[in-house]
C-alpha cells in the first residue's frame, strides 16, 4: 500500500476537486454497461451484413419471378401442343337420332361420313339359377344322408357346347371350404372356370336365397352337368347370345355390346334392338366445340403470360422502383419473338393466311382476342383451311402453320439447358451463391469482433473495478486522517 499512499500523498487529501474525481471514478465503475456497449458497436458493424441479407432476399425474389415465367411459358407450350399438329384436329362427334338403340363414340382415328346401322339383338351371358335355401350363411347346400357320412359336395359344369369345343369343369367343396351357399359361390369364383357366381335374394317363401350363375363372357353357354352331394337343383333362365347388327348392309356379330371398329375408328355401344330392325342413319362430323375449346384455352394462356410479363415490367412512380422485368433484354426478346410468330402470315393455304383471318386478333397491347363468330364461320366454311393456318399441312404443298412455328419457338424458350430463362436463373443462382459466401465471411468476422469487444470491455471493467477498490482505500485513509 506504500505505492498507493506515496502516489496519492502529493495530492492535497482534503481538496474538493480531487474528491469529486474520485467519486466520478466510482460512478463510472458502477454504471458501466459493457453488454450495451458491445451491442452498440455490433449494431454499427452489422450494417453491411444487413445489406447483404437484403440483397440475398431480393435475389431470391427475382429467382421466384423468373421461375414463374418459366412455368408460364411451359404451360403456354402445353396448350399450343393441342393445336400445332394436323392430328390435333382429328376431333369428331357422332350425330345420332334419339331412341336409336345405340350410341357411337368416335376416336381420333375416325373419318367424316354417314352410316346406316341396325341392331337385331344384343349380346347376353348364359344364366343359370339354383333352387332356394333358407339362409345363405347357415343352411348347408349338402344333401346329407341319414347316416351323416357325406363330407363333401361336387358340382360339374359343361362350359360351351359339348359338341364344339366344350369342356367339363368340376368344383369341390368340403370341410375346409365350408358348405353354405356363400361358400359355394366363393369356391366357384375362385376356380375361374368362366362362370361367375353370386347369391341373390329371390324372396320365395321359406327359401328366399338362390345361387345365380352367369357366364363371364357374352355368347358363352354353360350348364350344370351333374352334382354329387349337392342338395339343390339348377335350371337355365337365359341362354347366351351374340350381338347381331348390320353396318351399311354388312352383317356384324360381336360377343360384346361395345362393338369396336364396325364403323372404323369408333365404338358402337348397343342399347336395344332398333325398331323393326330398320337401319338408323348416323353421321360422323368434326367436333368444332372441342377445337373451339382448345383455341379458347390457347388465347387465355397466352394472355396470362403477357399479363404476367406486363405486371412485372411496370415502373412504380410512388416508390421510384421498377419491376423485375423492367429493362430486361431477355423478356423483351421473348415477347417480340412470340409476337412476330403470331402475326406472321403463311403462304399457300387457301383462304386463310393469318390468325386474324380465323378470328384471332393481335391487339396493340400484345394480347390476343377471339372473335367467336369469325372462328365459327371459318370452321364451317373451310375446316381444312383453319387446320392449315394453325398446324400447317403435309404433302407436296407442305406448309408450316403458325402454331407449329410457335411450338418450335417455345421449345427453344423453355429448353432446360440453353433456354434464355434458364440462363437468367443460372446467373441469379451464381450471384446468390456469391452473396451467401460474403454473408458467411461477414458473419465470421462479426463473431470475431464480438469476442474481441467482449474481451476489451471485460478488461476495462476489471481495470475500473481495481481503481474503485483503490478509491475506497484512499477514502478510508482520508477519513482516518492518515492521508
UniProtKB/TrEMBL annotation:
Question: What keywords appear on the UniProt entry?
Answer: Bacterial flagellum, Cell projection, Cilium, Coiled coil, Flagellum, Secreted
**Places the protein is found:** Secreted; Bacterial flagellum
Domain Flagellar hook-associated protein 2 N-terminal, residue spans? 31-124
This protein's major location comes to secreted
Flagellar hook-associated protein 2 C-terminal domain boundaries: 241-468
Entries under InterPro entries matching the protein: FliD (IPR040026), FliD_C (IPR010809), FliD_N (IPR003481)
Give the family this protein belongs to, as stated in its UniProt record: Belongs to the FliD family.
Q: Could you identify this protein by its name?
A: Flagellar hook-associated protein 2
> What is the scientific name of the source organism?
Leptospirillum ferrooxidans (strain C2-3)
What does the record give as the organism's lineage? Answer: Bacteria, Pseudomonadati, Nitrospirota, Nitrospiria, Nitrospirales
Amino acid at each position: 500500500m506504500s505505492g498507493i499512499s506515496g502516489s496519492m500523498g502529493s495530492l492535497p487529501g482534503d481538496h474538493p476537486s480531487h474528491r469529486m474525481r474520485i467519486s466520478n471514478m466510482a460512478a463510472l465503475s458502477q454504471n458501466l454497461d459493457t453488454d450495451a456497449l458491445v451491442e452498440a458497436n455490433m449494431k454499427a458493424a452489422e450494417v453491411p451484413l444487413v445489406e447483404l441479407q437484403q440483397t440475398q432476399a431480393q435475389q431470391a425474389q427475382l429467382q421466384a419471378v423468373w421461375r414463374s415465367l418459366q412455368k408460364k411459358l411451359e404451360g403456354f407450350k402445353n396448350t399450343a401442343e393441342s393445336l400445332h399438329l394436323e392430328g390435333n384436329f382429328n376431333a369428331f362427334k357422332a350425330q345420332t337420332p334419339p331412341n336409336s338403340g345405340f350410341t357411337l363414340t368416335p376416336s381420333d382415328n375416325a373419318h367424316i361420313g354417314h352410316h346406316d346401322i341396325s341392331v337385331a339383338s344384343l349380346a347376353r351371358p348364359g344364366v343359370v339359377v339354383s333352387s332356394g335355401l333358407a339362409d345363405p350363411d347357415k343352411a348347408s347346400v349338402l344333401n346329407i344322408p341319414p347316416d351323416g357320412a357325406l363330407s363333401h359336395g361336387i358340382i360339374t359344369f359343361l362350359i360351351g357346347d359339348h359338341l364344339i369345343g366344350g369342356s367339363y369343369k368340376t368344383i369341390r367343396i368340403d370341410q375346409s371350404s365350408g358348405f353354405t351357399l356363400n361358400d359355394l359361390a366363393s369356391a366357384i369364383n375362385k376356380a375361374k372356370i368362366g362362370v361367375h357366381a353370386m347369391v341373390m335374394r329371390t324372396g320365395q317363401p321359406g327359401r328366399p336365397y338362390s345361387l345365380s350363375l352367369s357366364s363371364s363372357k357374352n355368347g358363352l353357354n354353360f350348364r350344370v352337368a351333374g352334382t354329387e352331394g349337392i342338395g339343390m337343383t339348377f335350371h337355365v333362365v337365359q341362354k347366351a347370345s351374340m350381338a347381331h347388327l348390320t353396318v351399311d348392309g354388312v352383317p356384324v356379330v360381336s360377343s360384346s355390346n361395345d362393338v369396336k371398329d364396325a364403323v372404323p375408328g369408333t365404338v358402337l355401344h348397343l342399347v336395344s334392338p332398333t325398331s323393326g330392325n330398320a337401319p338408323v342413319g348416323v353421321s360422323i362430323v368434326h367436333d368444332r366445340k372441342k377445337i373451339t375449346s382448345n383455341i379458347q384455352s390457347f388465347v387465355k394462356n397466352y394472355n396470362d403470360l403477357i399479363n404476367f410479363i406486363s405486371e412485372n415490367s411496370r415502373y412504380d412512380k410512388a416508390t421510384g422502383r421498377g419491376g423485375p422485368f423492367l429493362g430486361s433484354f431477355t423478356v423483351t426478346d421473348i415477347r417480340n419473338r412470340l409476337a412476330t410468330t403470331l402475326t406472321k402470315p403463311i403462304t399457300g393455304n387457301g383462304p386463310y393466311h393469318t390468325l386474324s383471318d380465323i378470328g384471332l386478333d393481335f391487339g396493340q397491347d400484345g394480347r390476343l382476342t377471339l372473335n367467336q363468330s369469325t372462328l365459327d364461320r371459318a370452321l364451317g366454311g373451310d375446316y381444312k383451311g383453319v387446320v392449315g393456318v394453325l398446324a400447317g399441312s403435309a404433302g407436296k404443298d407442305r406448309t408450316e402453320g403458325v402454331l407449329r412455328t410457335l411450338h418450335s419457338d417455345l421449345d427453344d424458350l423453355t429448353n432446360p439447358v440453353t433456354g434464355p430463362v434458364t440462363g437468367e436463373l443460372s446467373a441469379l443462382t451464381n450471384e446468390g451463391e456469391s452473396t451467401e459466401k460474403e454473408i458467411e465471411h461477414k458473419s465470421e468476422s462479426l463473431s470475431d469482433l464480438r469476442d474481441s469487444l467482449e474481451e476489451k470491455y471485460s478488461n476495462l471493467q476489471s481495470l475500473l473495478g481495481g481503481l474503485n477498490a483503490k478509491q475506497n482505500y484512499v477514502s478510508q485513509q482520508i477519513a482516518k486522517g492518515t492521508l
